[in-house]
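> run fold Type III pantothenate kinase
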Amino acid sequence: MLLAVDAGNTNVVFAVHDGTEWRGRWRIRTDAERTSDEYAVWLLTLLQHSGLKPSDITRCVIGTVVPAALYNLRRLSREWFDCEPLVARAHLDWGFDIRVDAPHEVGADRLLNALAAHHTYGGPLIVIDFGTATTFDVVGRDGAYLGGVIAPGINLSIEALHRAAARLPRIGIGRPQAVVGRNTVAAMQSGIYWGYVGLIEGIVARIRAEQEEYPVGDLKVIATGGLAPLFAEGTTVIETTDQDTTLDGLRLLAARNPAPIFTRTARRDDP
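> ok
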């Protein structure tokens, strides 16, 4: 079985795939100082609850945009599952070209999304990921990663608005009933929700106009991330939502690359 670890800026998602389906998914708040033992106490309990044992895990793959978290995630794999993790990096075999100026600078999550989305939906396409940042990534017909757009995430914008304006409260995100709010909270919710719908539609339209080699209808738009279904309700631009895109990318990457060699005599704290 494969243990896939998707470490983002806000949460770390752990999932187990048995070769046919995902057997479980669990998330914990990202904390770069969380030790491998702390992860283990939490994760092993959840595995047991799902009828799984540490010995069931034969491979581990990690994708992270938080470099400081990698050390203890590696230790978790080595010390508790006896396997050397495959870490998603640009130099691995992705099965496609990374056509940007500095491939090593592209976040692992964006390459993983490109890999999984093209495998499932074909290309060309635009992948929108609603995470700590809202990213738009362009994938060619042949699966090549062509670059993208990074915008502030929805929750980040809400928090910034609350912190910068003394009289504005912290709000939850939801689809408002009307564009014009009749109170402060409704007005803020409208600005955030419809503002991001406008951002989505505007950026997608500009990407489509810039990618002149592809007819407009050829560039499919796939959305992932926790808020993807909510924003898909507000626009016809998003054609499909897929919550497993990044995890599927980890699974596919592990299938394309050999497992790193792990020996018990190796130093467990190697970087």
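The beta strands are 2-7, 11-17, 22-29, 59-64, 86-87, 125-130, 133-139, 145-152, 220-224, 240-241.
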